[in-house]
């Protein structure tokens, strides 16, 4: 029996009915040749959707290849950035010394003293210790009143204690870094490579890669979890809130941007607290010499006094370091759009300048907190008995490649110590007066506020690069949109 829809109508011979709709399969089946069906199907025989939906699902090989490509790309980015991260972390954790500014003079003075000692020794030995072979045939007798020092093994004078230059060389052989400029990233990298080899600049690369992968995965998981608990759509909270160092505008498309910002901040805090042991282990691997065991991530985690859990003294500083920058970067587009009336499409130049100022403020808040965090993390191993006085077993402090804090009393006390107690600071006015000879050189106790921003060039130049790219792209897109609008306006 033929379907009535496909039977030609004598009154409408040229009409062809639409083929999209519900087709009764049971009416088209022949008796005894078809299987029993329980309804109708909706068919699209004449609709071409190949441009929108692929006919075949991606194969397993393509999926594996995509995962491998993303992993290689992320690991490569970590490898390129790791030397600068190592140098920044060393500068942040290093305790300033009183003699940092006088180190070049002291080293030259030590070299001069060493050369004078060697020349004096050579002169004394060449005066009256050698026999005169051209005088008489009498056997040589050593004079009793010789002023030469007592000879040790193989004719060399014994040394009671090593000289300062010899001590510096011995420390350098053990991996200890003697920095000429304690504020220079390149000086840290050159000293580290000369003392421990070029591969020392890539310390804890695998740990950094694992930490970066896990922090992104846990943030996505916690966002989805909090969205499900609070009854918010996952499409609102899974927006990429930041692109590099510049806040992303995708949060403006969210129906509830305030909820999205709060959920993102809470997810960042929870992820940082869970992964705080890995971050602390990464700091230990960077700041300890290669001879300090263990050198693996799992082995370092076993040395934690709390057994794979975050130590209690790291909870406040880890919470602040993760929440404040995330809250600022995530809420910046909302504040600019709501309160300042800036639109990224209509005002691309003003939007780029405003986001750059916001990102600079983000770095200004982040770097002091990071400095305190690194010192609190390494104090877990350098002052274990002071941080855990109730522990029954006494732990031995580890050896570090730079001077680090031997105690940690909290966030504000550490900031106060850096500004007012560590090292010394000298104003530009005093430096100019000392160079001109108008006044003696004056040193003030403490590093000042600049002691909290060691290694700031890494973050700042990265911010400038990302912002410059986005700024040029925003101006080009805005000019193209304006030109297109002018062309269409001229046509109509």
TrEMBL record:
**Main location per the UniProt record:** mitochondrion
Q: Which domain of life is it from?
A: Eukaryota
Location of the region described as Disordered in the Swiss-Prot/TrEMBL record: 95-171
Where in the cell is the protein located? Mitochondrion membrane
Q: Which residues form a coiled coil?
A: none
Where is it found, in Gene Ontology cellular component terms? mitochondrial membrane
Q: Does the keyword Repeat apply?
A: yes
Q: Which keywords are on file for this protein?
A: Membrane, Mitochondrion, Mitochondrion inner membrane, Repeat, Transmembrane, Transmembrane helix
- Stated name of the protein: Mitochondrial fusion protein
Native organism: Exophiala bonariae
- Species classification: Eukaryota, Fungi, Dikarya, Ascomycota, Pezizomycotina
